[in-house]
Every structure is written in structure tokens, then in C-alpha cells.
Amino acid sequence: MGNRDLEPRVRARLEDLANTQLLRTLQAPSGKDFSSNDYLGLAASKQLHDAMILGVQKEGCGSTGSRLIRGEREAFQSVELHFAKFKEAERALYFSSGYLANLAVLTTFPEDGDIVFSDELNHASLIDGTRLSYADCVVFPHNDVPALSRLMHQHRGEGRIFVLVESIFSMDGDEAPLAEHAQLCRDQGAYLIVDEAHAVGIYGERGSGLIEELGMQADVFLSVNPAGKALGVSGAFVAGPDWAIEYLVQKARTFIFSTASLPAIAWALEASLTYVISGTEIRKRLIRSAGLLRERLLEAGIFVKNGRSQIVPIIIGSNERAVVVANLLQARGFDVRAIRPPTVAPGTARLRVTVNVGISDETIDSFVSALIDAFKNEKCTAVSS
Prior knowledge:
By secondary structure, this protein is of the alpha/beta class. It has helices spanning about 5-20, 45-60, 75-85, 100-110, 125-130, 145-155, 180-190, 210-215, 240-250, 255, 265-280, 280-300, 320-330, 360-375, 380; strands spanning about 30-35, 90-95, 115-120, 135-140, 160-165, 190-195, 220-225, 235-240, 310-315, 335, 340, 350-355. It folds into two domains: about 45-280, Aspartate Aminotransferase, domain 2, CATH 3.40.640; about 280-380, Alpha-Beta Complex (Aspartate Aminotransferase, domain 1).
């Protein structure tokens, strides 16, 4: 044994990943964007750019410490107040990433003797947060409320019950049946936690998410709202009752022991919220473009699930074929990435196509045409699906 034994093991596993088309590479953006989460095009907008520069000029670059020491800024407090109002919540707390926010929630509230019911397609950060908690976890079939109800009756204990879902699921783009989940939680005395990563900034009259659109603010215990997708910046807000947010400040290890984010991010987030709240038409345009893409794909005989979200998965099947199709599309100038296990289940490798407001109708038509050609290409047909 010794440190020389680790390298052969790691190299063998890297080789296995390569042989199964699961080896990932770091690839800079190139071509027309059909893969990012910058749904409203805010990441490169002048409004956020100017706000960030002003923030750096006023606050400097680094925060110098955690927010409980010297990393706190009035800008963080201000944007948290505005975000809480945006979500119609009592209070909000900003974290450096959505991953850290989900870990904070799930390692702070569920305790030994409690139970977390988690949708089987939840994001890795929700899965990992549940694993790191001391609570028991029961995974329920995706969006299956009757199955969840049966499991809740089977596993009823003395502790508190939490139900954990995404409002828009990141890899499938479908919506959680939040109203049904909320009713079940009311009946069972459970706490509903909703990750709004792919809904905040898009849905609802003011763009605060699917919770707002459904009028369910009073039914959700906590919402986690990443700011690096439609909001175009980075980090995440947890929104909920004042007592719960205060408890996160006191107990959440990913908040307490993390250096605070670049203060200028708070300035950019203020600009983002202002834009989103006033951007009703651009949000409608995004949903319309997503609908057009689905329509064109179906017309071409390419199966896509029903839905309205800006995430349009095209299931390929095999890892190798998904990589081949993605490479062919990239060669035609479309930035699409192959999504493979463990991000998705084995046998469901896919193109996770996303729509943003910068994509024209003509570009959608060109993309679908290129996709049809890719499926017909001999490099693709030579690979089994």
C-alpha cells in the first residue's frame, strides 16, 4: 500500500469512463447557445455589466471574510430584502451557490428521527443535502403524488416530514405537480421545500417562479432560488419565514464557514431583479420560443415530451450516440452538449436543449434542420441507439 497505489486505480477508472463514453471534458462556449441556463440573456446584458462595475468600484473585489465576520455588506442585506419581497416571503438569505443553499437547508432542518421524501429526479445538490442530513430519506417515483401518499403512510414516524421537489426539473424540463404536493403536505402535516432553479425569473406575473404563478406562497416552507440561471448572475437565495432564515444564519455550515461572495454580485442582482419584474413581454417571448421549438421537433418526427418550459430534452439513448449527435451539431455551429449518466439515468442519454431569448425563429428552424441531418449522418447511424 502507499501513495503509489492510488494512481493506478484512478487511471483505470478514467479509462473505464472513456470506454463507456462517460469521460467529461471542459469545453468553452462556441456557436449559437442551445445549452446554457442564461434564459433571459442577462449574463452579458449592459444593465448587469454596469451594475457589477459600479459594485466593484464601490466595494472592491473580495469580501475579505464570511458574512458573520467582516464579509457582510449593506448590499447583501438590501438585495435580500428585495428578493424576499419579490418572492412574497418574510425573509431571504443569499448563498454563494445553489448547491450550497440546498446543502444548507437540508443539513439544518431535517434531523435524526425526521424523514425526507425526495423526488427521484431531484438535482444532485438535493440528493447530497439529504444524504448529509441525519434524517431518513425515501425516494418517490417522479411526479407521482399517489405513490408519494402511499409511501408517506407506510413510513409515518414520530418525527417531522419534509417533501423535496424541483418546480421545473433540470434535465426533463417538466413541472412538478406543486398544488397536489401542497395538498398532501397539508393533509400529512409535512413541510414542502421547492427548488425553483429553472423557474425563478421566468414564471409568474412578476417572474418570481412557479410558486407565484400557482399562488402557493403560503403552502411552501422554503424555496431555493439559484441566481445563476434566468437571473444571469450567480449564487442563490433561500426564501421563507423569518424564524427559519434566522436559524440558517445561526446553524447552516455552508453559510457560516464560507467566505462571502464578491459584494458586487449583490449590485448586479439588484439590476437583475429590476429587469425581471419589468420584463413581462420578454418572459412571454421565451416561453413562445420554447413552444415553437417543440412544435418544429414534433413536425420533424422527433419525439419530445409535452410541456412549456425552456428546457427541451431530446432523448437519444446510448451515451456514444448522444456524443456523436452533439458533436455533429457543434460542427454546424450549435452549442449543444450530450448529457449522460450519472446526471441522467442509464439508457437515457440526451441532448438537453435549452431556449433563450436571443434565439430567433429562423435559428430554431436551422437547428432542427441540422438535428435531422445529424440523425441521418453515417457517423450517427453507425452507432446503435
